[in-house]
Write a structure and sequence with these properties.
mainly alpha; Helix Hairpins; 2 domains; three-stranded mixed β-sheet; 7 helices; rod-shaped
């Protein structure tokens, strides 16, 4: 196989390259039919994943706030119980020292009551706010999921219509690539990747490059028609072939 590849004439290599270009251009056309749908589907899936992660995080916040509320409720009950106890103790005081001590303990527990009630109110408001975020996120999920299903169905229809054709074209492209020497194939793929319209090989149109449309000198055009060497456009770097090699009549090339 390697010897056959080396024995290919320049003309045969150019024909193979141009044929490969036409196949890949058809693959590009099929991709264009899909448009931005694959990206749109991916964006919607990523957005849904982000929303679900947000809900999970908010639910964790609610769990933590609920635990804190339970702790504050216990603290509130403890402080109230101690206030009742110290209040009863006031009936049995024996001197001013005991009175002052118990009074300070009551004031301290009253502060604990206030603090616990404040924390309970703050937790309740925070839980309500987080629940609103969760509800909003769930609504967004429902809307996004609906759109996603529509986009997936649309993409699936297009894929089912074009998948078989694309697979056949890609198989043809693989077979052709085996006929082209690796260095030339690598150069072609690099040119094609950098080209805005994916054209790595173009034929001469109206005495100009069929890719960037810059004029080609007459001497250069003669060299292209001779098929003796690989010639690239000095402006855009695309590989140039003459219309005849591409199966295009000279008249059609001039009118293209």
């Amino acid at each position: 196989m390697a010897r056959q590849e080396k024995e290919l004439s320049v003309e045969d290599r150019l024909k193979a390259l141009y044929h490969l270009q036409t196949i890949l251009s058809e693959v590009d056309r099929i991709k264009t039919l899909r448009g931005e749908l694959p990206l749109e589907v991916q964006d919607l899936e990523d957005n849904l994943e982000g929303l679900r992660a947000r809900i999970a995080k908010k639910e964790e916040e609610i769990a933590n706030l609920t635990d804190d509320s339970k702790h504050q409720a216990l603290e509130l009950e403890r402080a109230k119980s101690m206030i009742e106890k110290y209040t009863r103790d006031l009936d049995n005081i024996r001197n001013n020292h005991e009175f002052e001590h118990i009074s300070k303990e009551i004031e301290y527990e009253k502060l604990n009551v206030e603090m616990a009630e404040k924390r309970l109110n703050e937790d309740a408001r925070a839980i309500d706010a987080v629940k609103m975020v969760i509800d909003e996120s769930k609504e967004q999920i429902a809307d996004s999921d609906h759109v996603l299903q529509e986009k997936r169905a649309e993409l699936s229809d297009i894929m089912s219509e074009t998948k078989q054709d694309e697979e056949k074209l890609r198989e043809q492209a693989k077979k052709l690539e085996k006929k082209i020497e690796p260095r030339l194939l690598t150069a072609f793929k690099r040119i094609r990747k950098n080209a805005r319209n994916g054209l790595g090989v173009v034929y001469v149109q109206r005495n100009a490059c069929g890719g960037c449309f810059n004029r080609i000198p007459a001497q250069r055009q003669m060299e292209i028609k001779m098929h003796k060497k690989i010639i690239v456009c000095e402006y855009c770097g695309r590989i140039l072939v003459d219309p005849a090699l591409a199966g295009i009549s000279e008249a059609d090339a001039k009118n293209a």
